């Protein structure tokens, strides 16, 4: 039985052949250190107790469908959260709750794209953005975010990528896979580009509160005022609740000009009836009051110290280099081509898995042209990461 032709250019190597091989090795009894996915629960991070209690308290009203956009308290909590950031033109009618941001990415693109329409997507990107564009019959046009620029977008190079078919601009900040946190200057230039060409801004900000060493997160919606901006976030990362599958898209900016588009998006939301209802009751609690993430990202906190361990291990390596991540929960690590001129990221990742039982994601999985990077999550304890880098260095020594 042949699969659909439309899947031919769809890739998601984070859960691809390497992950399947890792599962086979686990079934043979090997213990695999899985660094391919940012899944906090695997490494002992617990969802805040108050969020679990909020779900339990509302289970009795969670057995039926909710409104297609989501339960009102969850949407209103997102509105209030946006208002604290200076985004005042959002109401609950402009907020859509989804089964994670992943579902909302698909719905937003499906409501927007005709066959052949183009979307500006960063390179490297979180590969779901490219896949969702392709699945919705669009064309992903990758704009460069080169290592030599600290993985920030090269905005000057982006102007030539815009055509009459370009419909949207994707901005992932803080960035997955690189950990870059974009400067105000860069974000303002991206907003100006989108406004100049009337592009919908799709701002993936699910790591918004996860920054380090004074890096400033600036919401894209505070800058993109004269075009439509969708701010996307959720419970998976900052609130360590991946399994709840709760995300949201809050629309701001040119809402009047987007009336038909938002109606189309509501139609698509209605077709899937609603998103997971119990998890929606945790949104209000997650966005209000005390934020436990602040302790984790400060010196002495678990996420901060694990990130520090990665930076130190790379600095001690003969073969590795790193633009230190300023946000999120990943490191996009480069290999010195001068030391290893024939390095191939996919071959390295398979060798590391087979011989050292460490699973990483090849850099080329993130839609870049070069093959000398790989991504790891920085979620494990610092001592686990130091052990991992000892194994990585041994493989690279053998290759050298």
How many strand units?
13
Regions with little confidence, pLDDT below 50 for 5+ residues: none
CATH T-level topology of the largest domain: Aspartate Aminotransferase, domain 2
* Overall geometric form: globular
What is the domain tally? 2
Second CATH tier, the architecture of the largest domain: 3-Layer(aba) Sandwich
Strand content range:
15-25%
In CATH, the homologous superfamily of the largest domain goes by the name: Type I PLP-dependent aspartate aminotransferase-like (Major domain)
Could you say which structural class the secondary elements and strand pairing correspond to? alpha/beta
Write down the CATH class of the largest domain.
Answer: Alpha Beta
Rounded to the nearest angstrom, the radius of gyration is 21 Å
Mean pLDDT: 96
Share of helical residues: 25-40%
SSE succession: HEHHEHEHEHEHEEEHHHHHEEHEEEH
Spatial order of the strands forming the largest sheet: 2-8-7-6-5-3-4
Secondary structure tally, helices: 14
**Alpha carbon gap, first and last residue:** 44 Å
